[in-house]
Amino acid sequence: MNYWLMKSEPDVFSIDDLANCSNKTDHWDGIRNYMARNFMRDSMQVGDEVLFYHSNAKPPHVAGRAKITSTAYADHTAFDPNSKYYDPKSDPNSPRWVMVDVTFVRKFKNSVPLPDIKANPKLSKMMLLTHGRLSISKVTEDEWIEIHQMAGEKI
DNA sequence: GCCAACGTTGGC
DNA sequence: GCCAACGTTGGC
What we know:
Elements: E1 3-8, H1 15-19, E2 25-27, H2 34-43, E3 49-54, E4 61-68, E5 73-74, E6 98-99, E7 101-113, H3 114-119, H4 127-130, E8 136-139, H5 141-151
Parallel strand pairs: 1-3
Antiparallel strand pairs: 1-8, 2-7, 3-4, 4-7, 5-6
The chain binds a DNA duplex through loops.
């Protein structure tokens, strides 16, 4: 079992959007970064826990929780010339990009703002902070617990 | 809206 | 295989 943090711009796809999806589940398409892809392809397992992070918000914040409900499979948007995520180099017979299914768990009553995360010495090594632009990052168990404490949420 | 960080591309 | 140019992310 692993812990992850996954970023989404709330104007594009928020945690409320996820909660309103059929079965509260959507596929996490459009990842076009190799490190993030490798996390999905090589490490993510069904049942992994996810911090749902709102990037480009004011301030950016951890908004709630989700979980991984599929292993990685081909990101079909890479094959669609009309998609903004189209990648002609992704061969359907050997897909370059993958996605996973993510299911809503709950929204935090008190989201955890990025400035608070930065100010917390226990979180100084969080991948969120050390790999600023990575859209999927790993979270340690200690960090997972700490974020929940800051949100006033049960584990 | 700016711009720093940084990953990717492509010429050589 | 180097590295400059370029594009994107995402905080501010």
